[in-house]
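Retro notes
What went well: the complex prediction finally ran end to end.
Inputs used:
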Amino acid sequence: MNKDVFMSATIRISVVLVALLSAARGEAGPDRDAAAAALAGPLALQAGAGAESGSQQTWSRTFKTGPHGALELWNLAGDVTVVGGGGDSIAVKAIKRLHRGGGPSDLDRIEITATETAGRVSIRTVFPEMKHVSAEVEFHVQVPAESAVTVQTVSGDVGVEKVTGAVVLESVSGDVTVSGARRLIRAKSVSGDVTLTDAAGEALDVNSVSGDLLLKGLKARGCTLQTVSGSVIASGAACDRAEMKSVSGDVEYSGSLAPGGRYDFKSHSGDIRLTLGGSTGFALSASTFSGDLSSQLPLSNVRESERPRHGPRTQRLQGTFGDGSAQVDVATFSGSVVLAGGK
Amino acid sequence: MSCERYHDWINASVDGTLDSVERRELEDHLAACPSCAALAADLRRLQQLAQGLERLAAPPSLWTRIDRATRESDPRRRWRPGAMWAALAAAAVLVLAVASTLLLVRDRDPQPGTPAADPGASSIEVARTVEAELRLAEQHYENAIAGLEQLARDRELLDPEVAATLQKNLQVIDGAIAESRSALQMQPGSHPAQQSLFDAFRTKIALLEDTIYLLSEIRRNDQVSGTASGTNGDQSS
Amino acid sequence: MNAAEAELVERCRRKEPGAFEQLYRDHATRVYNLACRLSGSPADGEDLAQEVFVQVYRKLDSFRGDAALGTWIYRLATNLCLDHLRRRSVPGRETEPLDDATPRAATRPLSADRMDLERAITSLPDGYRAAFVLHDVEGFNHHEIGAILGIAEGTSKSQVHKARLRLREYLTRMPRLVSPGREPVARNGRT
């Protein structure tokens, strides 16, 4: 088969899938419920729902990789859940599922290629051209906690939990959810949300185009949280360097700062709300071209631009809190800037 | 000038490579020669400043980009987006370089609370030159962006909803660019407006590049994987 | 090249997961700072630093080990940055020094801040800029700089010296664009 046929096959499947997924999302988070069930008992999943049926097929493989192996998974459609634990094997369970139309022969044609070389497991799904059929492959993977994990999906949520090896996650329309990561490198989606809980790493790249970035508890040398039209809502980031940016969305940060850290908060038309707690001192530089700027931070060495009666409305505020060891830069174009001190 | 030979020694003393005899002779000379003493003081101050220059931290996005690029360069899975892409990427780099140089040079933003910058002839000239350079940078950006947009339009690999999301967000960024631009027209000297404009440009280029990377990843993975090497693991279902 | 470096290079060649990232972490800050200061801008610096490490990745197989890994990497980095500068050739920026001006008596003592110095560095001709950044900013000695730039140790000394004189000239003659009453805002508790 030539390239064009494959490409048009992908379009057709994607179109149908997305239409169905959008409909499914209208209900109360079916994807999340499925993920929660999977985390609670993957074994139960195998024992109970492993039934082959006309609309479902299971597939599983186990690879002995040692405690420091690597998983690379590409999935066109379907959620992927990875959980870190003990042992020295990567156990992959996949459920091929039909959403509409088709039968077992179509399921057979959905190919899951899995290879392992020197502790590196590479898994890929290949969907053939199928007329009037929509399908997905749902993955549940258990890995030794220190494995490196890379997952890329087009339409499918990605959930990774308790993996302390290097983690790279990319989705196009799925949500990306990570918790308990120690070496997160990248978590990206185009239209999905990215949610990180208790993540740590060296240099984190967290990105969505239209989705929100939600962060609770982050420890990193440097992190970039960037979205175009989504919001960035973060709390408790202890970073040497953090950049949180949106173009039209809001940026909210609450929590303490790392001493000597550099924090950059930017939005073009969204609002920026900072609630800075803790005892770390910081030097603040805040500006907005035409928005409103209000601060309740207890600052010294304050320099503000006056609001003139006519002419440019640009507002600026600079000041120091405590020993001024951290550096906080806040800038919007037209969004408001609201600065408050926390407990 | 007889002082000439001491200039080498002054530099060496900043390097810390003079022996004790030379050092004493230099000190004697500095006591007697104000211009050399001034030079020595200045060079020491210079070195202090240089050693105290900000230690920039490599941004997290740097590793991300390297990680990606090295994966792509793995001969086992290579997809060449073509010469045009490389040329555009280079154009984007050039554009960013010009713009960032401008920002570096012009970071003389009057601090709030101080009297307005001296409205002498020299600063007006600076403002005019800056505007001209700004316009040039914008032109470069626009060319690079137009090219990237063309490539990104090859979106048949993406389903309509994702394509629509990307389109809508590009429009959001375009809105930010337009607003910043008209603000700059009213107030060419405004640092926040300049910053906004360049930030928006950079965000747009990043989004276009990400889109192209995304397309390349999808295309790469859609190709039939040839003979799989390595083990296939244990079946257990 | 010492044993630890040799082991890391070997692990990278075997494409062991995480090995190249470790190599990157070991040298990222220095390469990034070099790239920013040689090229004159942080955005440029990031792109160049990316190119450096991608080239390191590709050329690692052919790295002989006759020089220290760091020296090899910084040589790659400096060459890339200088090539980039040459290709850019912004009009008005000299690539070769016009003359080696003897230092004139300064009009007033040098009182510049870090921002001023960063700008002044970008005004230096390429060769001087590289030598100065490597020596006075990054702390390499003339012998190491010779290895990195492929020049004699004496040439490195002379380039650094000339660079300093130029910078001094630039900084003492720099026009003040802001009213003299301005004080730099306190950052990190230092002025």
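What we learned: The helical segments of chain A are 3-25, 30-40, 42-49, 104-109.
What to try next: split runs per interface for comparison.
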